[in-house]
Design goal:
Pfam families: TetR_N (PF00440). By secondary structure, this protein is mostly helical. It is 79% helix and 2% strand. It contains nine helices and two strands; from the N terminus they run αααααααβααβ. α4 runs parallel beside α7 and α6 crosses α7. The chain is elongated.
């Protein structure tokens, strides 16, 4: 695992200096201080190394998401991740396309959105139909993901606090509005 992490750190370092498509295994192993055989023992190619990095990042973000209950915390964690990893994320877009990168974010977004919707249901004493709840979570997750992808690609002028404020306002308003419009009284707890 230590070798994989060292290779990953070398790739990250090189991605801050030049595009992913211009990086070679030779440069990674030279920076890392291991030989090519060691690289290929752990990874099939540079793409496999980049995928491994994202798997590790995804697991770490999921651990952080497990402790989050408020939308503003969630949006803040994601924004910080994007700002701190912009070079990596842009390289991933170049290497894999935006669809794979979107999938990286979507599961976490969906799960947290579902938690937030269920908390709102509990607080209001109202319940959404399962299919409507799922649609709402998909909708909000896709919107948030699209906004972040726009930022990664440089077409979204990010102001951290406004993004947090606006995103949570939209999220809360949508959830509250749907509960008021379509929510059914929850059955009493046994």
């Amino acid at each position: 695992m230590r070798t994989k992490r060292a290779l990953a750190e070398s790739l990250r370092k090189l991605m801050r200096q030049k595009p992913f498509s211009k990086i070679t295994v030779t440069e990674i192993v030279a920076d890392c201080g291991v030989n090519r055989k060691t690289f290929y023992y752990h990874f099939e190619d540079i793409y496999a190394l980049l995928r491994w990095i994202f798997e590790q990042e995804s697991a770490e973000l999921r651990r952080k998401f497990d402790a989050i209950e408020r939308p503003e915390e969630f949006i803040g964690v994601i924004l910080d991740y994007v700002v701190n990893n912009r070079a990596l994320l842009r390289s991933a877009c170049d290497a894999f396309g935006t669809v794979k990168l979107e999938n990286f974010f979507l599961t976490g977004f969906y799960n947290l959105t579902d938690v937030i919707v269920r908390q709102a249901e509990e607080k209001s004493g109202l319940r959404l139909e399962d299919s409507l709840r799922a649609y709402l979570c998909d909708f909000l997750s896709e919107a948030t993901c699209g906004m972040l992808l726009s930022h990664i690609n440089g077409s979204f002028p990010l102001d951290r606090q406004k993004t947090i404020d606006f995103s949570t306002l939209i999220m809360r308003t949508a959830i509250r509005g749907l509960l008021e419009e379509r929510g059914k009284k929850a059955p009493p707890k046994e």
